[in-house]
UniProtKB/TrEMBL annotation:
The keyword Disulfide bond does not apply. It is found in: Membrane. The chain crosses the membrane at residues 9-30, 73-99, 119-141. Its main location: membrane. Signal peptide: none annotated. This is Membrane protein. The keyword GTP-binding does not apply. Keywords: Membrane, Transmembrane, Transmembrane helix. It comes from Sphingomonas psychrolutea.
């Protein structure tokens, strides 16, 4: 039987790829408009283009980086839950909640970028992650 928790994992990976495409679609034109020749620049660090290109062109890139951070913990704990045989029912619903909140966070950050709302969404997603971690611990240490 397939573990239902794997479905939100796949959706979050797919969403991360959507955000990658959004980032490229917004950032490349902004770089060109700023006169930055991608063929001539070498290496960079996160945030190096802040203040060089418009903030709205940076927001999808910032969010894409965020999707490479905390969600990696989600992926790991979801796999533990799936392998422990507890990936259906409440754990699947919590995982869907995590994914829905992260998608809402992405859309918010990449459009209006209101920090107070972003923080609330981040807090809610973290609470989902804490619940999944506790459930995983109960499954593997029981």
């Amino acid at each position: 039987m397939q573990s239902e928790i794997l479905k939100p994992v796949v959706v979050l990976v797919a969403w991360s790829l959507v955000m990658w495409a959004w980032m490229v679609a917004v950032r490349i034109p902004a770089l060109k408009k700023a006169g930055i020749d991608l063929g001539k620049i070498r290496g960079s660090r996160p945030g190096q283009l802040d203040g060089v290109v418009p903030d709205k062109a940076q927001w999808p890139a910032h969010n894409y980086m965020h999707l490479m951070e905390q969600p990696t913990i989600f992926y790991a704990i979801a796999i533990v839950i799936a392998l422990s045989g507890t990936g259906n029912g409440v754990n699947a619903w919590i995982a869907w909640g995590y994914v829905a909140i992260r998608i809402a966070h992405s859309v918010l950050q990449s459009t209006i970028n209101k920090i107070n709302i972003r923080f609330l969404l981040f807090l809610l997603s973290t609470l989902c992650l804490i619940a999944l971690t506790l459930h995983a611990a109960m499954a593997v240490f029981a």
